[in-house]
Amino acid sequence: MWGLAFVVEAYISPSTVQAGDSEPNQLSEQYGLFTGQIMTAVKEACRGAVLQRKPRLVEAMYFCELNTPTEYLGPMYAVLARRRARVLKEEMHEGSPLFTVHAYVPVSESFGFADELRRWTSGASSALLVLSHWEALPEDPFFVPKTEEEIEEFGDGSSVLPNTARKLINAVRRRKGLPVEEKVVQHATKQRTLARKV
User: Fold this and answer.
1) What long-range pairs does 186-191 form, CB within 8 A, spacing at least 24?
2) Which residue from 40, 36, 98, 96 is spatially nearest to 65, judged by alpha carbons?
3) How many other C-beta atoms are found inside a 10 Å radius of the C-beta of residue 87?
4) Which of 6, 42, 80, 159 could serve as a FRET partner for 49 with CA atoms 20 to 30 Å apart?
5) Is the pTM of this model over 0.70?
6) Which 8-state DSSP code applies to residue 160?
7) Per its UniProt record, what InterPro entries does this chain match (predicted)?
8) Residue 164: pLDDT band by 50, 70, 90 thresholds?
9) Please, which pLDDT band fits residue 16 given cuts at 50, 70 and 90?
């Protein structure tokens, strides 16, 4: 998290033990609040405050420099499109059939990128990846239609477009063995057989 600060102020509760209190109240006042109770309350308060501000996911981006012959520009652009890359510029080298393409590729999409690029371009393309910057994803990972306009546009949530931020969060949670909030069946329809029975 970036640009985040929690201001924690100390609060001392006055002990109000009265003479007529029962025995369990005296024991709880004697020991005070337990550390676990305070840590849980503060953790939930901080988490709620962060979620209330509509957080956005940030992902690392590689600067990618590709060199490819002109006949393999199409397959190279297909590989870049599958990897959610953003092309910055392309220029042709003077006196040679090579193109140089500059693009930003998300780090999460870069695993196996060079192998796929070589496979689709028959080994004619080469890529150089350098960590460039961090980029915020514009999508809300916790988006659920709530207002009338959103419900009218997206329905009950089944027709919401695929959320890239939510996919990345679910992939990390799956990798770490944490529970993932996903439906097994998205849009169920009755199965029918296409073969005609004679």
Assistant:
1) 186/158, 187/158
2) 98
3) 15
4) 159
5) no
6) P
7) EFG_III/V (IPR035647), EFG_V-like (IPR000640)
8) confident
9) very low
Residue 104 tokens read as 């930003």
CB 151: neighbour CB atoms within 10 A?
A: 13
Dist. CA 32–CA 155, nearest whole Å: 50
Can you read off the two tokens belonging to residue 176? 């770490």
Q: Which residues pair with 136 in a beta bridge?
A: 58
Residue 196 is given by DSSP the state: P
Q: Which residues contact 139 (CB under 8 A, 6 or more apart)?
A: 56, 163, 164, 165, 166
C-alpha closest to that of 140 among 163, 106, 160? 163
Residue holding tokens 């957080």? 55
Lookup: tokens for 49 = 């405050």
Task: Give CA–CA dist 53/41, Å, rounded.
Answer: 19
pLDDT confidence bin for 157, thresholds 50/70/90: low
Q: How far apart are CA 98 and CA 106, in angstroms?
A: 25
Nearest to 83 by CA among 106, 99, 61, 66: 106
Dihedrals phi, psi of 185, to nearest 5 degrees: -110, 120
pLDDT at residue 171 in the model: 87
How many other CB atoms are found less than 10 A from the CB of residue 11? Answer: 5
